[in-house]
Amino acid sequence: MGIEDQQAAIDAEHGDPEGLPVMRARFEHNGSPRYMLYTMKRLGLDHEHGFHLDFELVSDELEGEVETVEAKLQDGEADLIDIDYISTARERAEGAPIVAFYPYGRTVGGLVAHEDSDIDSLADLQGKDVGVVRRLDKNWILVRAATREQYGFDADEAATPIEAGSKVELTRMIREGEVDAVLQFWPIVPEITETGPYEEVLPMAELVQDLSGTDNKLPISTFLTSEEYLDHHRETARAFASAYRATVDRLVEDDEPWEVVGEKLMTHDDPEIVRAVRDGWRDMVVRDWDEETIDGMEELFDSLYAIGGTDALGVDHIPDGMFRLLE
């Protein structure tokens, strides 16, 4: 389903701000947060918790070296986005006044290959062409760290990463046989494997847990805003967090919202795909966080850095003040 059709479904639920403080949310048209944000709007949970969510979809392409949503936030055109916290660290270290104020989830992808491929594990990536959104994508960082630790080679050197620039292009590349495998974002994996002769070789969530050394489910992506917005609109940020928790509860406990999401937002309104995405979302979402969660995220960063270094992560530390608990 195209971005225009999805936006039309969202706009049908927008309504009037009714004098409430407005939070401008800009999210990728094929990213999983759109399921949650659309449900929040449809159920009126933003107004119920005291703010108006202005929700628009944008492309998943890069603008320069950053994702479109990140460019929107840095240019002052958005108050709320989500990206992985390694990218957040990279941009904040370069001077971007952005902060992570609430968790979203373990939003990583999966290694997908043709069913007839000889790729059965990360060890088989040597000599293969692997499609990635970009070399600094979190999924490729995880693969590089894991191949170094588990198999004694760096996938960036032993394989050939081919940057696609977008998730849409990744799907095209694997379907047209231009690469041996792709690291695709998790909600798109079922669309590929359920509609063609492809299989998920390895979910990246397994690498997250292996490399973090903890059984706690760690968020990889977080909700971001600007320092200025958080300084002046902390109560609105708290209201969003409350609405988010309420929306997560509905999506975890009730199947009905997923039926609507499948109809209104998914390219393939196939019950099998909808159920796969629903179950995957429930497994990856993080409802809340605390200091212990953030400590775990920092430990995972340190583990990845120890294995891959600045070359893999693009940054050598998590900048001070990047994580902000809404106390």
TrEMBL record:
So what does this thing catalyse?
N(6)-(pyridoxal phosphate)-L-lysyl-[4-amino-5-hydroxymethyl-2-methylpyrimidine phosphate synthase] + L-histidyl-[4-amino-5-hydroxymethyl-2-methylpyrimidine phosphate synthase] + 2 Fe(3+) + 4 H2O = L-lysyl-[4-amino-5-hydroxymethyl-2-methylpyrimidine phosphate synthase] + (2S)-2-amino-5-hydroxy-4-oxopentanoyl-[4-amino-5-hydroxymethyl-2-methylpyrimidine phosphate synthase] + 4-amino-2-methyl-5-(phosphooxymethyl)pyrimidine + 3-oxopropanoate + 2 Fe(2+) + 2 H(+)
Query: What pathway does this protein act in?
Result: Cofactor biosynthesis; thiamine diphosphate biosynthesis
Note down the stretches annotated as region Disordered: 1-20
List the Gene Ontology MF annotations in alphabetical order.
metal ion binding; transferase activity
Keywords attached to this entry: Iron, Metal-binding, Pyridoxal phosphate, Thiamine biosynthesis, Transferase
Keyword Secreted tagged: no
Residue intervals of the SsuA/THI5-like domain: 66-254
UniProt GO BP: thiamine biosynthetic process
The record ties this protein, via Gene3D superfamilies, to: Periplasmic binding protein-like II
InterPro entries per UniProt: NMT1/THI5, SsuA/THI5
Instruction: Name a Pfam family for this protein.
Output: NMT1
Query: How the protein assembles, per its UniProt entry?
Result: Homodimer.
Which family is this protein grouped under? Belongs to the NMT1/THI5 family.
General function of this protein: Responsible for the formation of the pyrimidine heterocycle in the thiamine biosynthesis pathway. Catalyzes the formation of hydroxymethylpyrimidine phosphate (HMP-P) from histidine and pyridoxal phosphate (PLP). The protein uses PLP and the active site histidine to form HMP-P, generating an inactive enzyme. The enzyme can only undergo a single turnover, which suggests it is a suicide enzyme.
Q: What is this protein called?
A: Thiamine pyrimidine synthase
* Natural source organism: Halolamina litorea
